[in-house]
């Protein structure tokens, strides 16, 4: 997961955990414990004060996906123990203000799409020599690339998702297309859209086929968003 996709709550959680570690109130590994029956929140023991509580254990796993935390299983094999990575500490220190992946701007968008999809997706009207950076900066090329990828994403999702899920997914793709094609896309609008489109609540086997469309769109968004 790219830092771009982290929610405000996930960033706040990581900042809080790093702050507790630096203050000596938490010793790694971080051990979240379920609270309530059924579980409504999770608690982390703090030295010298009340335990810190948060709502979603999935936020820790999202931070792991982004490389900001890592985990190992406890000795019983039924719970995860978390550690802040060097990347996580740096992300907090830099207030998550990381540039787009440095190589991304110089990648050929057409070749990237073809590689990710195994040749299944091609970008008609986009030369192989055109890089992600060039396409993101050119309104005509950007429109061509975005509309083509969105249409292909919709077609792919229609074959993969149950109809009830596809209707919602289709509407989200339309919102993403509109958000990406305005002169200066808004980060606050793009983050939740990418988050929902990359994690449909269905069979996870479909993930690579959707990601082959969404990752190129994410790179364009990352270069354009403010």
Annotation keywords:
226 residues, mainly alpha, 3-stranded antiparallel β-sheet, two-stranded antiparallel ribbon, 9 helices, 5 strands, 52% helix, elongated
Description:
By secondary structure, this protein is mainly alpha-helical. Helices cover about 50% and strands about 10% of the residues. The chain has helices at about 10-20, 55-65, 85-95, 110-115, 130-135, 140-160, 165-180, 185-200, 205-225; strands spanning about 35, 40-45, 50-55, 70-75, 80-85. The strands form 2 sheets. The protein has a 3-stranded antiparallel sheet with strand order 1-2-3, with no helix packed on it. β4 and β5 form a beta hairpin. The protein is elongated, with a radius of gyration of 20 Å.
Biggest sheet: strands, sense, closure? 3 strands, antiparallel
Any idea what the shape is?
Answer: elongated
Structural class: mainly alpha
What is the radius of gyration? 20 Å
Number of helices: 9
Q: Write out the strand line-up for the largest beta sheet, numbering strands in chain order.
A: 1-2-3
Q: Which sequence of SSEs, written as H and E, runs from N to C?
A: HEEEHEEHHHHHHH
Beta-strand segment tally:
5
Helicity range of the residues? 40-55%
| Poorly predicted sequence stretches spanning 5 or more consecutive residues | none
> What is the quaternary state of this protein?
single chain
Strand content: 5-15%
Mean of all residue-level pLDDT scores:
85
Q: How far is the N terminus from the C terminus?
A: 19 Å
